[in-house]
Amino acid sequence: MWRTTGTFHSPLTLEPCQDMNTRKPYDGTRRNLLIAMDVGTTYSGASYCLLDPSVVPEIQTVTRFPAREHVGGDAKIPSIIYYGQDGSVKAVGAEATQEGILEKAEDEGWVPTEWFKLHLRPNDKDEDTVDQAIPPLPPNKSAVAVFSDFLRYLFQCTKDFIIQSTPYGGSVWESVEDNIQFMLSHPNGWEGAQQSQMRRAAVLAGLITGSKEDRGRVQFVTEGEASLHYCLNNGCVTPGRGVVIVDAGGGTVDLSSYEPENSGSDTENKISFREMTRPQCYFTGSIFVKDKARQYLQNKLKLAESRFLEDISHICDCFDKTTKLTFKSPNEPAFIKFGSSRDRDPDVGIKSGQMRLSGTDVAKFFEPSIQSIMNAVISQQKSCANKVDVVFLVGGFAANDYLFKTLTEFLKPTGLNLCRPQNYSNKAVADGAVSFYLDHFVTSRIARWHYGIMVITPFDASNPEHVLRKHTSYIHSATDERMIPDLFDTILLKNTSVAETTEFRSVYLRYRTESQIRLHRSESVKIYCYRGTHQTPKWLDQDADNYIALCDVEIDHQVPVQLYRNVLTGETCCKLEYSVILSFGLTELKAQVAWIEGVRPATIIYDN
């Protein structure tokens, strides 16, 4: 049976401070390099920090990329890759949007790939809607393979930027190339399975090797938490009050709520925050505005039997790059300029190469995304025990003035103030991911689900729940007891506040016969999370669809056993007793295995 014995850290104290620049000198003994990569659905970027002993770390942003050299200070490139027919990479990022690239791609049969990040997403109820909106992957290419190609490109761009923009850049790179830590950001709703795929992509990209020792060189941070760190580093802090972070990107909208807490030290004046409620993630980013526009325009042109129906992809691209960005009000018409002055079709509003749309229709394209943000902000506010004053809007979608204006007007009666930090759309997540590594402003997080394992328990004829499930019972071959399977034993309760260093330990007993001992040379425990509505989930058969097998904790070494003889069969049997220790405080699940002789690491395996 499993028993939870973890204890929680008490809240710490925060002295209100407007100056976030309290970073201490790096206390390492050798120079290291930290690189953060923000691979977004539509745009991506990278930031870095050279960690020199006794020097205060400074966050730097990569602002120069191939085919963007003439653009000063541009911290983002399109998340696009062109593949040749043989699967080789032909053009990436800004190179894939150069003039003439479409003609070359068509002539040579290149296959474009965009929005590939969403192919890594978890399965959920919105899967069909998302599948309809995102383009398929290229033939014979997995999502992990495409992601790895983009990581490889971002890494090379970062390397070139550091060498070219740092004094003695070549020597600096040689001194750190074997000591690089990587931070990868991902949406709030992504968990261990997605992190595992991203780490595999990092291995394929050559960022790290596949060894267990190298795994720790890749760490993860949610986009919401990275955005909070960015806001704090840019002076956006409300002393004593909670904040909601809305990271509105291309694919997802991520929401997180935080409040300052005490550091426990008047002398350190340390800034620390804790999550107030579970983060949220919705597939309602800006690409879905384009998808709504495509559905509308396609129907409009099809009904009118317009010859411009064959240009629907180009028209939608023009809407996405100009009309969507400049749209301000449903009270004014909007125009999609896509052709020459000779292109006209008055029946569908096309004159002089541009299509006229009513502002009301365009506003409807935004409506699902805006409504989801409104609902989520109010949900976050209601779930927070303490007062929330400010909502910070970051991410590429945040640059849209219609979105900002509509949300501002909606939030006024609620007492919430909406603001956009400086450079909110260009580098918030990448810079914030570096800060996450350096500063660790967030000291506790909220458990998103119930976590536990399925156990067997001795049949009790006086227990109505056992009697109800007697048909599932069986005689255990090693103990000769009648057992009931599929009892969910909770290790960590949903909505529990978990400090970074908090461990949750559960004791496990397992019995084997002699023949089973020979078959099971290694042991593993399957971790489940419950995502349903029951406050105290108990039996698998009560809500089977909401018990999700999260991962296997594999014990890759010999566990001490206690041998005994079964008095009924005379067979030699054994009892294994050990604890599985789970740490949920950081953004990645970690596990250890313990018994009397000591504690050993365990391998977490995700079924991707």
Automatic annotation (TrEMBL):
<protein>
    <recommendedName>
        <fullName>Actin-like ATPase domain-containing protein</fullName>
    </recommendedName>
</protein>
<dbReference type="InterPro" id="IPR043129">
    <property type="entry name" value="ATPase_NBD"/>
</dbReference>
